[in-house]
Sequence to fold (223 residues):
Amino acid sequence: MIHGLTFKEFIEEEKTKLGEMTQAEKKEYFKDYYLKTVIFAVIVLILLIWLFVEIGLNMRRSVVAGGLVNMEMTDEGTLFLGDDYREYLKLSKFTHRVYFAQDIFLDKNEPESYTIFQAELATNTYNYLITDEEGLDFITGIDCLADLDEILDADVSGKLTDKKIYKKSGESDKEIAAAIDITDTAFTKDYIKTGEKVYFVISGKTEEYDSGIGILKYILEKK
Fold:
């Protein structure tokens, strides 16, 4: 009920009022009694649409998650590792997403930058990382890397023999093929702003190593 009236009675009363008004009076009446309500309803509708879109986007299946450590990448490089890679796999942007973090900077004057990154590595946030020498040393100390000698197929592994970087992983004395030197690739030359060595590592959960391998092959294919 509205002011003691049923909804039907309210509608009839409003029709009667409007029928007795001039066009100018109708406009003034609408502004005084309904404009704020309409604006509020439109805002609520927009927020609801935005919320549903956000929920839908967040529910997309993750294809791969990567990160850039201590370096800067061009916008074209970010696109190459993001939407371009998803399209390369012929996957829809509405059902799949590719995540790439390019804001990982380890700063000795900000110890929390190491703590946050270590926590991300410990919780398997990334399937792969592209890093400089300092970042590589820190990552290998966390014991979160795949042994590339064990997970790469014979064809790819053979082509990268002279590019493999061997390091001890974590507190273990075992030395593994921890990284691939991609400094001289077309990908690095075109997209990464650095004069230093650039390395590619595969991390995260064992059952998700294929995600990192897939994007490594994609990077190596770039001409």
Observations:
- The mean pLDDT is 86.
- The two ends are 70 Å apart (CA to CA).
- Strands lie at 61-69, 72-73, 96-104, 128-131, 164-168, 175-181, 192-193, 199-202.
